[in-house]
């Protein structure tokens, strides 16, 4: 974030601005709260047949979520300490967003705005509530299982197709 000094400022239609111009508060509010980023992912690290091609590893999403996800609210129970409790939890910012695009869900506001696309019509910033996104099944609520109940070797059994990167 470039504009951290104006931390409490939330401008009208801030989501239409380039991401670099958002305040910390605006950046946080851009998130729709779907929790799709909290889904455990499987990554195919096999080198492509043509090593000269710069292709991102294939990602498969599972219905397994982080143990700290409050599944009914799609919010992190350890948000402030998430990187301490889960060291590989990514705190998304403008520095790491470009190299993370290959795994970020295709409905994500950060990904869409980075690519110069508008927010989806169901986004809470446009509709004023979560109702439209819930009707479309965007949040993970009711379709996921905590990692506490799944062995790492069993993740493949929980691959889903309703989330794409």
Number of domains: 2
Question: What is the typical, i.e. mean, pLDDT?
Answer: 91
Shape: globular
Number of helices: 6
What does the radius of gyration come to? 17 Å
Determine the fraction of residues in helical runs and give it as a percent range. Answer: 10-25%
Sketch the topology as an H/E string, one letter per element.
Answer: HEEEEHHHHHE
Strand order of the largest sheet: 1-2-5
Cα separation of the termini:
24 Å
* Beta strands, count: 5
Described by strand count, sense and barrel closure, the largest sheet is: 3 strands, mixed
Secondary structure class reads alpha+beta
Low-confidence blocks of residues: none
Walkthrough of the structure:
This protein has helices spanning about 25-30, 80-85, 95-100, 110-115, 125, 130-135, and strands at about 40-45, 60-65, 70, 75, 145. The protein is an alpha+beta fold. It has two domains: about 1-30, no CATH class; about 35-160, no CATH class. The strands form two sheets. Strands 1-2-5 form a three-stranded mixed β-sheet, with no helix packed on it. Strands 3-4 form a two-stranded antiparallel ribbon. Strand 3 (about 70) and strand 4 form a beta hairpin. About 20% of the residues are buried. The model has no long low-confidence stretch (mean pLDDT about 90).
